[in-house]
Amino acid sequence: MSTTIPGYAGKVLRVDLTSGRCTAESLDEATLRSYIGGSGLGARFLYDEVPAGTDWSDPQNRISLATGPLAGTQVPGSGTFSVVTRGAMTNGATATQANGFFGAYMRSAGFDGILIHGKASKLVYLHVHDDTAEIKDAAHLAGKDTTETEALLKGDLESPGQRVSVFSIGPAGERLVKFAALVGDKGHVAAHNGIGAVLGSKKLKAIAVERG
Q1: 151 φ, ψ to 5°?
Q2: Contact 70, 165 (CB under 8 A)
Q3: In the predicted model, what is the mean pLDDT of residues 1-15?
Q4: Are 74 and 91 contacting, i.e. CB atoms less than 8 angstroms apart?
Q5: Is the Cα dihedral 139, 140, 144, 147 positive or negative?
Q6: Which of 8, 40, 193, 196 could form a disulfide with 35, with the two C-beta atoms 3.0–4.6 Å apart?
Q7: Is the pTM here over 0.90, yes or no?
């Protein structure tokens, strides 16, 4: 059951890239009141689910993209989201944020966050829309920079305007360069601690979130 706390959708999207499964998981009121916002939720998942000593490139490593209770409101900056993972540069916990439309669109698509683990067998991207998600082939995006990737995915999804928010990695992330970033919405960047390399290690090229 979804939470009744104002400002929250009450669920996260779990993505297992190894099995190719995407499932919605409810968040209880106690969790949302204790771990407020994207960094709080991400830290909780990282602490609970990633064993000590796990390497940043291990499929067991989680990467969380989540937002807070103001997402999608008229408050300035309400499209911001936070990324939490074990980062490539330090192999330790990290949290970094980016602006743009992603946080607001994720909330309108029905989720407070996206929690990713595992490793795909080939390069893929994630399409989130209307309370669901699909893992799709990204072979045509291999080697593309983030500007090209965003344009191509908006073309694939028939959304030339701002109906879809796309964040992706470029060639550096694909090659596991340890300072690679996650870039989207025409230049917004989540840059700290090599989270682009973490996504590259999971063979996840991009995440496209369609406004609900």
Answers
A1: -65, -40
A2: no
A3: 80
A4: no
A5: negative
A6: 40
A7: yes
